Amino acid sequence: MTERVVLAYSGGLDTSVAIGWIAEETGAEVIAVAVDVGQGGEDLDVIRNRALACGAVEAEVADARDEFADEYCLPALKANALYMDRYPLVSALSRPVIVKHLVAAARKHGAGTVAHGCTGKGNDQVRFEVGISSLAPDLKCVAPVRDYAMTRDKAIAFCESKNLPIATTRKSPYSIDQNVFGRAVETGFLEDIWNAPIEDVYEYTADPAQPREADEVVVTFRQGVPVALDGRPVTVLQAIEELNRRAGAQGVGRLDMVEDRLVGIKSREVYEAPGAIALITAHQELENVTVERELARFKRTVDRRWGELVYDGQWFSPLKRALDGFVDEANEHVSGDVRMTLHGGRAVVTGRRSQESLYDFNLATYDTGDTFDQSQAKGFIEIYGLSSKIAARRDLHQG
Amino acid sequence: MTERVVLAYSGGLDTSVAIGWIAEETGAEVIAVAVDVGQGGEDLDVIRNRALACGAVEAEVADARDEFADEYCLPALKANALYMDRYPLVSALSRPVIVKHLVAAARKHGAGTVAHGCTGKGNDQVRFEVGISSLAPDLKCVAPVRDYAMTRDKAIAFCESKNLPIATTRKSPYSIDQNVFGRAVETGFLEDIWNAPIEDVYEYTADPAQPREADEVVVTFRQGVPVALDGRPVTVLQAIEELNRRAGAQGVGRLDMVEDRLVGIKSREVYEAPGAIALITAHQELENVTVERELARFKRTVDRRWGELVYDGQWFSPLKRALDGFVDEANEHVSGDVRMTLHGGRAVVTGRRSQESLYDFNLATYDTGDTFDQSQAKGFIEIYGLSSKIAARRDLHQG
Amino acid sequence: MTERVVLAYSGGLDTSVAIGWIAEETGAEVIAVAVDVGQGGEDLDVIRNRALACGAVEAEVADARDEFADEYCLPALKANALYMDRYPLVSALSRPVIVKHLVAAARKHGAGTVAHGCTGKGNDQVRFEVGISSLAPDLKCVAPVRDYAMTRDKAIAFCESKNLPIATTRKSPYSIDQNVFGRAVETGFLEDIWNAPIEDVYEYTADPAQPREADEVVVTFRQGVPVALDGRPVTVLQAIEELNRRAGAQGVGRLDMVEDRLVGIKSREVYEAPGAIALITAHQELENVTVERELARFKRTVDRRWGELVYDGQWFSPLKRALDGFVDEANEHVSGDVRMTLHGGRAVVTGRRSQESLYDFNLATYDTGDTFDQSQAKGFIEIYGLSSKIAARRDLHQG
Amino acid sequence: MTERVVLAYSGGLDTSVAIGWIAEETGAEVIAVAVDVGQGGEDLDVIRNRALACGAVEAEVADARDEFADEYCLPALKANALYMDRYPLVSALSRPVIVKHLVAAARKHGAGTVAHGCTGKGNDQVRFEVGISSLAPDLKCVAPVRDYAMTRDKAIAFCESKNLPIATTRKSPYSIDQNVFGRAVETGFLEDIWNAPIEDVYEYTADPAQPREADEVVVTFRQGVPVALDGRPVTVLQAIEELNRRAGAQGVGRLDMVEDRLVGIKSREVYEAPGAIALITAHQELENVTVERELARFKRTVDRRWGELVYDGQWFSPLKRALDGFVDEANEHVSGDVRMTLHGGRAVVTGRRSQESLYDFNLATYDTGDTFDQSQAKGFIEIYGLSSKIAARRDLHQG
Fold it and tell me: What is the ipTM of this complex?
């Protein structure tokens, strides 16, 4: 039987050319798989037909938007996942769901190899290949750009020589990856890290500096899951999409940072993630209200490791599964409402209420009615400070 | 000889009354010590004279603003200290510098006790007393509000009966603590955590929602220390003060959160820290450019522990000293310029440049001239993902 | 109705006297509750009758040995819990199970207070009272030794004056706590930390220096649970008991350390825990074989926090529950056999085998048949070392 | 000018053959560098002459034993470095000191490449090459066994055809690496992880099961550095060597474990490190006596990361330097004596005394004279347990 290769297909120039390129390099039949994770753009049917027109023996398209939101974005939200305290893992989250569909297609069509369009210097090649080897250790991986020297110029020449039905317009100055959880922009003049981004770079967010009316939203969570906006029930996907629109219209969620890539280099990245940032902001504050202090403190260590691990392409790793167990348990009581003002690039929490609140007005208030027994403080302080005091007695004596 | 008590004196009603109250309770002579950490308000001489008029046998005032900035705010900046990922430790930083002056005064005047005006349910009593016991394990501590039942009403009555020269106006609805690093507001209607703050609450920051021209600033750091603004050399104190003005004018640095207190309860806090937030934002991004990845990752663990420890009143502890050693070492290369736009409540980094940069254009670029050897990626991915792959082989087999 | 107090009853002098002492101090009726956690000694019926003879209105005894082994010792084993890398938490584990029985008795008998025999300077008072307030926040706690000044001398006098049926022999020179998971000895000449323990101190272990035949045991685990010894099925309790005997006979499990107490002081502790140490040793090595590297690395952080938390009396805390979720998940594949030699005070693993092993002979071997592709190493090393190399280029240039 | 290659030379078959092999493969001149890190065996002059006889254009030998002990073993001791809680990093510590000498030789002789004898599946190739790229990013690395397919059989054939002055005896069944800090043994029948090691495997340690007289030693530390044994001043090297002899004679320091290699596989390792284990045991207990609790707790996190980092070949990394800063600070007060009994495979601490002790007899004792104020405990417990109690009130209500 002819070898078969499953290709992660986007509909763009590179992966369209890759269909024929892989076939020529390997003699294999190519099956194109396009996964909708909310990246927008063309209709899936259009993409499907283009793959076939470019020579794919099969073309599969999948609407994975709810799956992506429920099984990939939601765990990130529960872990307040912000790589380097900033970046909500937009691309890092979409790779594993795409991997799942690629592996399923490889099994269905009897393919022994999975191909993707990544270069050899980014994170995504690692995320694809480590993901595939974790779900299907027997499958091989190939990346035509990296492994078969399929440069942009050669791809355009190939496209023209084969008369492929793709517009080979001048490439965008930027390299872009987007999905429902956000949008990543790199390269171009941004590679000079002293240069500021220009408005041209952004698509998911309006200019936060433009005057406009503020928007106010109440997000309701149940056990860490956003279940309603302004009282209307929503799915996780709907919550992200609506907040992408509303927070995006207020310029919320722009990020500009120098980032530590998994492959050891630093790169300049610009992101837009209005829905993600608004939801994480609300979720964090609801945790402040409903999660006990020591659990909250340790959860920050877990959350940070979760974010690093997923950024580093280890979505399907044993550690990720065990961290998820911790994170789910910690979200058990994260239920309630958070009111936020969306305005001028900021999502600002202005109120929180919860049946699960650990905030106790009577303990906290300085008003009459206070139930906190202040006489206990003296003993607490003495014993709480004792180990430092004993050390101080020694150190002062010697100093 | 008569017992002597050193009192942390603010010039306000509570501590003015405490002078006489302590004297009556204990028969001791009271020495008032006021420390200027940039809280503004009255002249130190006015405060000094009021203390004497209220019965203090001695009154000392100290301008500790530079000391506070250099020795307390700066280490916090180097550690990007944000308790619960938000709060730049405004009050927690000022307590140890005040403690240092109280202990020095106690030694100078032969006092055996230090008194402070805190209640028995907050963090500051712990910070004062653990700090004092770490610098002077032999000194006793007393808090008239907590230990001698000196309530507000009784204090006003005392004040009036003794004809003390203090205005006993109706108390502010808020409890406020402020210094050059920021301002903390609590109590009042904010104790209902569903209530949004009103403009009335703020003093250090203008309303971010008001349209105005953006401000742009270049902050220069040398080894983690801010040394120039827009090219003009500044002390740390000047850097904080100027950014308090400029970032404050743009509404930068407002925080509203439910916070885990050291004494085990959650409380609602509103903060303004325009200079602190602007400086930390700039410093973090310069770290992103100049600090190697694994050092940066572990530093986040150290920074978080540093913030918890200082929040928890352990400024003078052995662990704090050892963490400082790490943080200083990690800041060795954090030198360079960060350009920020201050506007609409946000301090946004738009550019960074550094002689110490680890960002390598030639490794990062997707342009020609790229020096990254992509052929190495294949081997990296295979071995990097090997332990997960071996685990997957086992787990899939059993699943 | 008369107030009722539930007392944690051991049958010894202190808690026998406490029955009457509490009654006199408070006028309450005292219900004695004795919990068998494998401490050995007298029959539970004897203890029950003594409580009644000493004035208890009710006396309950519970055989909690299996409950203690399954629900308290087993989670500690799964977390390899060794406080300060040494101490298997013997006493810290028994307090929460006793607390559970005390609270149940308080509910059953309508008591509003729980009493225990601890002093005011140890960890156990905290473990009892924090445990009780976590299971029954409405119950009050009282400790006659600490709160009612019930010293040893006064207790003996009380005993004699009331003619209580307790032998008031000279107290043991040591303070001892023991249960099936181990035995703790403190005070006496051990308080001079330069003094070595003498054989007299030990009961669970023979002198390791005496020549004897080695013992060999194969421990079988299923998902982290010891389920068989030398192929014979055992309960967790039986596993601990049998290894207490066999490892104890070889002198395994003696510990002598200076320990950081929760109340801020350091104390000298001598422990014997032959079964616990043998089981943890075997479990750790089976984890080495069956747990993926990154999961194993992070689990060490979780295990350490677990041990601190339980030592610190937070068994019933939210963080403990969430850590348990992680630990259970991490133990999912910890199944297989570990062969150990018990001899001369050491439990030494000599072999391991597991259906879940991640050790792959063909990858590890240096023999022919090796399946490890060494050509990948070059690329791995280059990219793995890249961030350090880039930093080195900068640092060497400047040095 | 002819290219020059610096080769890490051991004097054994593989690296002796590599001299000619590299010359044939590359046409370069080979400079052999042998570094004495206490591995014993032949005289350095003999090794030097053999290198020249095998075709090296230059041969350098260095006695780096004190350098290795002072600058590599000592930091490991201060960090109680035990990879996977067991392994004292024997080989991992020697690689960086060898790297330093290789780079110095490359600079001196104008070489552009460094060669080593490692295979492509172990940790040491990474340690060598990442180390070299961190000290000399411009140097290239080559490993004949891995890169030029120099198998054992081909090496023997080469040796015989060139008539090299090396005994090509049947290889030892084990792969061995040893230095003054310990000895590592792998491969052979040990690759079946159910097989127990046999006595034949060990060289640094006597059989712990043989009856013999116990040995007692007092180790004196100053700021974490072992400075005397039984009162006689020693260098770090002497301390290790003497304890290798004395603890080795008692069978102390044998380890048998399955270990997570940096390259993603698990391997079976047997170690002997009598001096290292004895010194770390003593150092840990002296830390228990002299280091404040919270510093000690965080130091365990630092120590663990230190060990992982060094195991992973990142000795010269920025994070390693910053961790060293912490570790040195934490050792500032680790001074005093530890008495240990060495016997039957165990190094057991029996006494400790220190001018820097934080153990306070008067606080710890249960005797009269106790200075601990037990009345403070009640307040401490109430506030210490408050956050758990508030969470419990919520959770019980809902449960």
Answer: 0.96
| D63, β-bridge pairs | D36
Q: Three-state DSSP class for C59?
A: strand
CB atoms within 10 A of CB B53: 14
Residues of A in contact with C292 (CB under 8 A): 317-319
Residue A314 bridge partners (DSSP): none
Partner-chain contact B359 A193, CB within 8 Å: yes
Mean pLDDT of chain D: 94
**How many CB atoms sit inside 10 A of residue B223's CB?**
13
- Counting runs of H as helices and runs of E as strands, what totals does chain C give? 15, 14
C9 marked ligand binding residue = yes
Q: Mean pLDDT across chain A, nearest whole number?
A: 95
pLDDT value of position B168:
67
Q: How far is CA D216 from the centre of its chain?
A: 24
Q: What is the pLDDT of residues B13-67, one digit of tens each?
A: 999 999 999 999 999 999 999 999 999 989 999 999 999 999 999 999 999 999 9
pLDDT at D397: 65
How many angstroms separate the CA atoms of D7 and D30, rounded?
A: 7
> Nearest CA of chain D to the CA of B56: how many Å?
31
Q: Which residues of A touch C121 (CB under 8 A)?
A: none
pLDDT one-digit tens code per residue, B235-246: 999 999 999 999
Q: Residue B169: what pLDDT?
A: 67
For chain C, where are the E strands, in sequence order? Answer: 4-8, 29-36, 58-63, 113-115, 140-142, 175-179, 182-186, 215-222, 225-229, 232-233, 254-260, 266-272, 336-343, 346-353
Average pLDDT of the residues in D115-136: 95
Task: Tally the C-alpha atoms within 13 A of residue B238's C-alpha that lie toward its C-beta.
Answer: 11
- Cβ neighbors of A390 (< 8 A, separation 6 or more) are C264, C265, D292, D358, D360, D363
Q: How far is CA D154 from CA D93, D114, D222, in A?
A: 31, 22, 52
State the pTM of this model: 0.97
D397 touches chain A (CB under 8 A): no
Q: Is C335 marked within a binding site?
A: no
For A274-313, what is each residue's pLDDT tens digit? 999 999 999 999 999 999 999 999 999 999 999 999 999 9
Q: Which residues of A touch C295 (CB under 8 A)?
A: 317-319, 322
> Rounded to a whole number, what is the distance in Å from the CA of C287 to chain D's nearest CA?
9
Question: Tokens 């037990």 belong to which residue?
Answer: D374
- B126 shares contact with chain C (CB less than 8 Å): no
Residue B127 and residue A343: Cα distance in Å, rounded?
A: 37
Per-residue pLDDT at D364 exceeds 90: no
Query: What are the structural domains, with CATH classification, of chain D?
Result: 4-162 (3.40.50.620), 175-291+333-353 (3.90.1260.10), 372-398 (no CATH)
D342 near D356, Cβ under 8 Å? no
Mutation site for D-interface testing, chosen from C121, C353, C375, C394 by largest number of D Cβ within 10 Å = C121
Taking one residue from C and the other from D, the number of pairs with CB-CB distance under 8 angstroms is 276
Write down the residue that tokens 């150990």 correspond to. Answer: C340
Asked if pLDDT for residue B399 goes beyond 60, the answer is no
Distance CA C232, CA C385 (A): 50
Dmax (CA) for chain D in angstroms is: 86
Q: Are C301 and A300 in contact (CB under 8 A)?
A: no
Interface contact flag, B266 A358, Cβ < 8 Å: yes
Retrieve residue D53's tokens: 């006889």
Residue B70 is assigned to a ligand binding site? no
Give the pLDDT mean for A195-223.
96
